[in-house]
Amino acid sequence: MPHTKEQQKPILLLIDDSPSIHRLLAFKLKNEGLEFLAAFDSTEGVELAQSHQPSLILLDLNMPVVDGFQTMRALKECSQTISIPVIVLSGTTSPEDKVRAFELGAMDFVCKPFDIHELRARINSAIRISRLMKMLEMRAQVDGLTGLWNRAYFNERLASELAEASRNNKHLALVLCDLDHFKKLNDTFGHPAGDAVLQGFAEVLTTELRAYDIPCRYGGEEFVIILPDTDRDEARQVAERIRAALEAKGWPKFPDIHATASFGLTTAGLAGKDDPASWIQAADQMLYQAKHAGRNRVEVFSGPPSDGKAHLALAS
Ligand SMILES: [Mg+2]
After folding, report:
1. Number of DSSP helices (H) and strands (E) in the chain, helices first
2. What pLDDT, in 10s, does the model give residues 55-73?
3. Of these residues, 47, 77, 137, 221, which one is catalytic?
4. N or C: which end of the chain has fewer CB within 10 A?
5. Last residue of a domain, one of 84, 104, 138
């Protein structure tokens, strides 16, 4: 289940070589409910931005050695800091500087000496915008009906987990699940019942999975789970636990429903390949087998490579 960051004090990172600016802002903004982080040069600033993920950065343009423009470029070139909003503070009012700062990705530009009321308003506005952007970004990755991660997120995440597993030589498991006879269930009990089962299955996944597992809605009545750092036997136990929990689940509003699901599990890609598509194909092949062996079961891919053709059309 996607976890939102808990509401916490927004962190404001000030990167400025002048200690008096640090003192002034810490004093003037002490009642704003912000947590302050102080950096006195570019290197320190970029490091703190990466490690603390501030809500907002105030960046001085005029610093010795590495100036604000270069700092900005470093922040925007790094995936960890690219989306942190930056307000540039400048001693000059030069239009060229302003244009350059905005071109490099600044959200706002404030000239020194600044009016503290105005700066405060700009800070609060920038933090509000960045919160909204995060919320939108999160919504775009979450499935509306079940609250699980959606397919777009899954695609991205599988690629990064595969890369991470191979880099660190760690286990990884992938489980594709499909609710059994879902079309019939919808036809017999109606779509509200179908939705209740999709949501109920999502609940089972959230309850039975571990905090670091990644359950996603793949589409329709198909779900997919990424299990980082998990070997084949562990993954089989997890999938079996989910299967049994769904089978045992009661449906208070629809007492006649008996929902089950089939599972295809893999810890490798099809034909010895290590790209996301091959992993999905391997899991899909196992899911196909589970369906044909009678449903409500877990089938596990054991390699070795087969014909390399996945059975992409699923029988429901
Ligand atoms: Mg300065």
Report:
1. 10, 10
2. 999 999 999 999 999 999 9
3. 221
4. C
5. 138
